[in-house]
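for the record, two folds in this file. i put them one after another cuz i was lazy. first one right below, seq on top, structure tokens after. the second one comes after a little note so u can tell where it starts
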Amino acid sequence: MRPPSIHGFTLVELIVALALAATGVHGLGAWLTEQQLRDRADALLHALRLARSEAIKRGARVDVCPAAGACAGGPLPWEDGWIVVADAARETQPPILRERRAADGITIRGNRPVADYVSYTSQGRARRLDGALQMGTFTVCRPGLRARKVVLASSGRARVETVTETCP
């Protein structure tokens, strides 16, 4: 007579299954964090593209400024969010075309030409309010991940680059 078969897991099988599950959860968390960084860089890219196309369509200046109300003056951090506004220099309450709020743990730093704002002329060129050429780079970071750069070219077009440098 055969002994009754026992269904279940051995201790070794259980330990291996738990280790694999923990590795999968960690991998999923890292992937989600990477996706959040990619989303933030893409959202800034889309805001710049919207501002450029709206400036051409409206035949007037359109600005992208860090955080709500920042177009009125004073530098604010880009990671707090940004707004796309039509003709901010001429109106006290410019119409907001798009608004994006903060994302936890992600920093966005623009180099000097784009640290305060990006402004598009009716020809789709990025120019400072004083008429100077405006091009620069935004670095989108989260500690431990590879940085993404949103690069604004002299033509007014923008693109996203993934770089090898790791965020501090």
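(here's the note) second protein begins now
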Amino acid sequence: MNEIKIGVITASDRASQGIYEDISGVAIQDTMKEYLKSPFEIVYRCIPDEQHVLEATMIELCDKEGCCLVVTTGGTGPALRDVTPEATQNVCQKMMPGFGELMRQVSLQYVPTAILSRQTAGIRGKSLIINLPGKPKSIRECLDAVFPAVPYCIDLIEGPYIETNEEVIKAFRPKK
């Protein structure tokens, strides 16, 4: 069995400088611990909102670290320094727009400003990259919505078999 590695990237100028704690990156890690039954390792990076740094970090986690899933937080809004979707698009061979569509749809039930979110997802080699919003509450709402499709997506790109804790989140795989 392949070892499951999950990359977590926080794109935040202030958190990367230690001005404040990275609660978003921690929220993703905590959610993965609840979701996953399969043993896994987290590869974590907290970096500034710089497109070239984001791209290099995504490439490192996918290609060198072998993460089958890379989840980002931050940098998905309309502000000038928000460049995570652009970085994702630049490093991926295939874009998976359904992830962003569903996350915005779910977030719109809670806040009208969800329409400002540009999060997306894409495939780089055998890795799925998903952009999440920056707030821990929104991270969980978005992951609850899209994660049922994640293990099967990783199956399709020849990644490791991921088992979820079905009491928390149920992965959907079509019947054979």
